[in-house]
Amino acid sequence: MTNITKYWLLLESMHFATINDTKEHGDAQYLKESSLANDMQRLSHNVREFRKYIKLPMKDLVRQLLEDLNLKHMMGEAVELGQEGDLATLYSFYGIYMIKEIANNVNFISNATEDLVAERHKCLFIACIQDIAQFSLQQHLHPNFYKGRPVLFSRPHDKKTSFKNLEIYVGGFTHVLFIKPLHIGKSLDEPILQYMAGIFSLLMACEDKEYVMADQEIINKTACLQRVWLSLPKSLYFRNLMLMKNNNILSSSGQKILQRQLLIRLWSPGGFNALVFALAECKKEEHSLEELISRLVAQPAYSAKAQKSLIGQILNFSRACVDNQELLQSMGVGLLSLRRLYDLNDENKTFVEGWLQSQLHILIQPDCEKDFTVMDWCNFQHLISLLFHLFCTSTVECLPSNLLTSYLNLILNIFYHVQQHNNTQLLQGHLKALILKCLHNQNAKDLHNIIEAFALQRTDFKEWVALHDCICFDENPLNSQELRIILTSEGPHLWDPLPALVMILKSSTFNLLSFNIFLILFRLLPKLIKEDEEEKKISENMELLQPEDLHQRILREVNTTYARRLHIIKALESLVQHQPMKCMINENSNELLRCLADILINFSELNKHLSEINESTLMIALILVREIMQISTTRTDDFQTVLSKPLHNLYENIDQQSLKYQILSVLHLLQGRNDLNVRYDPLKDQFEEARDLVEAKEPYLQVEGIEKLIKLINCRDTYTVSNAHAIAAMALNTLKSPESYTFLNCVRLFTALVHIMEFEILDLLGDEYVADSSTLDYRLVVGEVILKIGRELGPLCYKYKTILLNCFMTGCRSQLGEFRLSAFSNLAQLCRILSYQVYQYFQELLQLIDCELTSGKYLPAKRAAVMVLSDLLEGMDNLFDYEEMLLPIYRLLKCLAYSKQSDEQIRIHATNGLKNLSEKCTKLVESITASCLEKEIKILGVKDSYKRDLKNHILEMN
Questions:
Q1: DSSP for 15-33?
Q2: 869 near 886, Cβ under 8 Å?
Q3: Is 0.90 surpassed by the pTM of this model?
Q4: Tell me: the pLDDT tens digits for 894-940?
Q5: How many domains in the chain?
Q6: I need a labelling partner for 853 at 20 to 30 A (CA). Which of 102, 254, 296, 920 fits?
């Protein structure tokens, strides 16, 4: 057995060029730097020390080395190699022999007590390896390694390469460099670089016929490189490889060998990661790391298998960067490389598409059972974050967003579910970015098709994939900071994509995209109108349906026709209220005008008789055309040629006078737009003056403008009547004024407007009254306006009894006590006007009053509810017409009037109601007794003629 102790003593006696700091290695005694005059004196000293401890002649030492290193093919040259040479050669052979003996006889890996190595001996051994590598490996590399700029390796000018010696040196270091405990920090990085350069030098010399090696030896040297790749850090391998490859003076064979080795390692598992980290350590400032690696990775000459391997590695690297925030700064390298690989050929594109589908497949077709988790929440967050970085972090580096087109519905559905929960702001931001990036990069035609598919909820669009119907996002009961994704057994979840899309658009800075989507949705309205008219024609020609068929047909029409239109209108309403959208409309008024022109052309192709909804849509389109043409500063000659014919057709085919007013106004504006200096027509000066006053901030100016508008309306001014919808919008806005004098005059304006557009005004006010989003004060004022209009119309408001009664009855169900009080008070006065028309609503009315009296907690609302019955009796003319209603009313009022538990005001209202009923009964009896009684004998069936049994009321007109 070899005596290792003598080698430790030998190491302690030797002088090395550099050693590690003593503070880092305890109290070991090291020389900090050689005190010898030069390296030759140091080498001479070390050789003498070697000969003291190693009692072998040089020839025998070389022969022993060849046997131990299994270099039998060189045994015939042992005598030649063993001849005394220069000090560097002697030092190298003795050093190789010593480190080989230490490596073979010392177990550095073992933790056993008898195997432990002193720390100072280990450090001396490392210093010896470094020093020997400088004189053995580095001075016998291929001559091309010492040329070029920059020079990586150096040696004396008179030194020549001996490939035979180099082969021995490489074999000796193979025994040492793979001992992991010796790799302290970067202590052996330089010897490993020299070791790899030595192997490549032998391979290059063999390739260039400068040195002869058997095939088995070539295989052995290549295996040594493989061992370096597997045993040592891969980034170190790539670093060394790139440092050697950076030498442009290498021969073509050398470049070829290094390039082949680089590609082999790059295509191996973990190769891309190692390349990134290696180049990140040694890159130069003048070269972009992203460009350097992407050019190296994305080359068309690589095989298809290699390219797919690289794509898979980059995707895994990107996922690791998302999971580890410290690596996130390196993600740009992978993104640019992935994009360039993707653009190389169709096979790579198909591979990436397949990867994307495999990632999202679990959300499309989950393979779990009902009420079980589909996907871990952390994995889901990492997936969305990965997609965000792959598609949205850059324009050049990222994957093309058209890959997400088929998954837009799925991503939007996920956003719809996620935005309903807290602590998901980051996830929402990533989903928004994916959706906006994909929509923003679509051309006009594709964007139109996508938005149409969203609006009409089409499922057959471009291989459209959607989130599984039964997937549900809800709170995780085990962790309040997370959600869980489960496959619920409750059935499919219905959702509407447009509100989610509008929410994303309004929270983004993609104003042009929002404007384009607004125009697309606007253009869908005439398409729906045409479909509605066709459906109407078909339904008119259909035979009578069975009740089951009729039920299904009604459901289908509600879910398709009306629901789709309602969703589009609500989306348009939400977008147009967005301030950036208003600016975009002002800047691009011609685009909106072209859209409106298309709508008017579609209307001109419809029949003469329009539905009420289409009348309103046409009215809005005409008003918008006029308003936009007034504010537009560009010429509209092209619109005159486009719109003149459809407008004339509309004028001839419709009967509504208000629509004709609007058409004439637009035609007049089209004819007078040739001169851009004429901003206003003298015929509309009075209206515009009044409009400017109403839109002023000062209350007294607003009141003055309202007075002028009322006068113009009463005079039936043509231009004012054609702008009735604009006046209604101004009046609604002014109604919110805190000044009582302003909104009271605004009430008068509504009562004037109702004479020229009754249904529209009442329908508009009814919607405002029941809207929970409005403030209480505003809704109370709207209720007062509705009541004033009812008084203004008087008994003729029976035509709108459905709107009026339903409006206030809805208010009676409000949770706000003050609002219920107002609703019951208004309902009481309305019942006095519409007493005869309340008959079919009586049961619901009585139920509302009973509910308020029994469960209501706001006393004034209870009093108002009783007052409804009192005013209802007050409005009755002929009691015989209300005989079915009188008994329940009488019983309720009598109970309230004589109950000691009732409030005093409630008893007073009930007593007044009974008093009114008593007086009307007395008058009825007196009228019966006062009339003369005549006896009439009639023979039934003889000259009998049918006579309709008419109610004795002037308003019974049905």
A1: --S----GGGGTT----SS
A2: no
A3: no
A4: 887 777 667 778 888 888 878 877 887 887 777 777 655 566 666 66
A5: 2
A6: 920
